[in-house]
Structure formats: C-alpha cells, structure tokens
Design a protein that fits this description.
The chain is globular, with a radius of gyration of 18 Å. It folds into two domains: 178 residues, Rossmann fold; 68 residues, no CATH class. It is α/β, with parallel strands linked by helices and 262 residues long. Helix 4 crosses helix 5 and helix 5 runs parallel beside helix 6. The strands form two sheets. A six-stranded mixed β-sheet has the order 6-7-8-3-9-10, with helices on both faces. A four-stranded antiparallel β-sheet has the order 2-1-4-5, with helices on one face. Helices cover 35% and strands 24% of the residues. The chain is built from nine helices and ten strands.
C-alpha cells in the first residue's frame, strides 16, 4: 500500500508515529491478520473501517501488544519491535510502547469499585509514578475537557454509557499518550448517547492528537479523519483520503460495505 500523506496544513514528522510491517496474527489455525503494513503520522486521525470479523480490532490490539502478533514488525517513532522467526521483543520495550499509548475500549473497562477520580489517577500514580496531587489536578482538567467534572466522586455504575465512555477517554488521556487508540468507542452505546462521545473525539482531533479509530460511524470518518483504512479478510483492502475512499471506492467489497452501513 502506498503511504497516504497528511493534507496540506498539517505538519508531521518524517518518521511515522506508528508503523506495522507484514503484521500477522493467528488464533490457533485461524489467521486473523494476513500481513498488514500500515503507517500513521503525527497529528493524523485515521478511521479503520470494515465488517465484523475483518481483523480491524485485532489489528488495533496488536499495535500495543494487548494481543501479541504472531509475526511481523511494529515501529513506534523509530523504536522497532520484531516478532516471529524465533524473535520476541523485550518486555521492557513492550512496556515502553504501552506507556506512550492510550486505548479506549468498546465496553469502557472502568473499575466499578473505584470512583471516577480513582479510575483516572490509578495508572499515572501507580504505574507512571506521578505524584498523587499532580495526578488529581490533571484528572480534574480532563474531566472538565469531557464535561464531567461534577462526576468526580461518582461510581461508574451510576453513570450512563456515554458518561462512562467519556471517563474512559479521560483515563486514556491521563497518561499523556503520544498515540490514542479507539476500538469502536460508540458501538456499545444507545443511539442517543453516541453524539456526546463523538463530540469529545472530534475535540481531540482539533487539538492535533494522533489517533486511530475503529468505527462504523461513517459521518465521523468523512468529516474528521485524514485517512480511512478499509479492512477485509485480515488485510487492508483500500486506504486513502475520506473524500476518495468513501465517495469513490475502488474495491467492490468496500462499495458493498458502505451500502450496508448507510
């Protein structure tokens, strides 16, 4: 696949923020990723689309080693992690990559026995060694950003799905990530709550955050993203600017997919 550069007006490093080369993932005898090569640059917002089972969520989870790839190579700002052929990345390198990324999941994954504040500050304090008071001040800033500062002492079970997902976004931002990964962040929400979460993600895009977003929200992909990547059967079938990929798809499979989600 050819590299899709940023549109005019957005600056980027010559080195990709994240790159995969021939990335493969097997679950037993089933090959879910079949040699995915991909690049995203600083300040890019990339939508990853495709039917259920196409490999897009597995790909996202492999990028920060929530799933260990079977083979291939992942490069994060010049730090290369190679897998397969008897090679495995050092655990210290994996942890370093994870510290530089934040991830938002479909099902929120908040700790129900902790308050909103505790959910946000636990990782910065106990994993990154941030002083508690500093972490609390940052958490309050982030809750204001996502419009939930009044929920600081609430427990997740008292929040709506949209509110829980906004807390999850604040938690991901608390580690000051260089890359944000969103795995279908609105798929578990009732339709009336989708907009409030997408509004937060749109605001992050305007800040120039580097983000990869697995989504079925085509309006979001069209309006917010710099690049759209279409997965089919464990491979990238097509990629490019939204105006091209979503309006004039070259792949018949992409064309059929877009008709199914409109």
């Amino acid at each position: 696949m050819s590299v899709i550069d940023l549109p005019a007006g957005k600056s980027a490093s010559a080195v990709p923020t994240i790159e995969s080369r021939d990335l493969r993932k097997n679950f037993g005898a089933v090959e879910v990723l079949k040699g995915v090569s991909f690049k995203a640059y600083e300040h890019q917002v990339v939508s990853i689309i495709g039917a259920s089972g196409s490999g897009k969520s597995t790909f996202l989870r492999c990028l920060n080693f929530l799933e260990t790839p079977t083979s291939g190579e992942i490069d994060f700002k010049g730090q290369s992690l190679e897998i397969g052929g008897g090679k495995a990345p050092a655990q210290s390198d994996v942890e370093r990559l994870r510290r530089r990324t934040g991830m938002v999941f479909q099902q929120f994954n908040l700790w129900s026995h902790w308050t909103v504040l505790e959910n946000i500050i636990k990782v910065p304090v106990h994993v990154h060694g941030v002083p508690r008071q500093q972490a609390v001040e940052k958490a309050m800033e982030l809750l204001a950003k996502v419009g939930l500062q009044e929920k600081v002492n609430a427990y997740p079970t008292s929040l709506s799905g949209g509110q829980q997902q906004r807390v999850a976004i604040a938690r991901a931002l608390a580690v000051e990530p260089e890359l944000l990964l969103f795995d279908e962040p609105t798929s578990a929400l009732d339709p009336e709550l989708v907009g409030e979460v997408l509004a937060v993600i749109r605001s992050l895009a305007k800040e120039g955050r580097t983000m990869l977003v697995v989504t079925h929200e085509m309006s979001f992909a069209r309006e917010v993203c710099d690049k759209v990547v279409f997965f089919h059967d464990g491979r990238i079938e097509e990629e490019g600017p939204p105006a091209e990929v979503l309006r004039q798809p070259r792949s018949p499979r992409l064309g059929a997919f877009l008709k199914s989600v409109r």
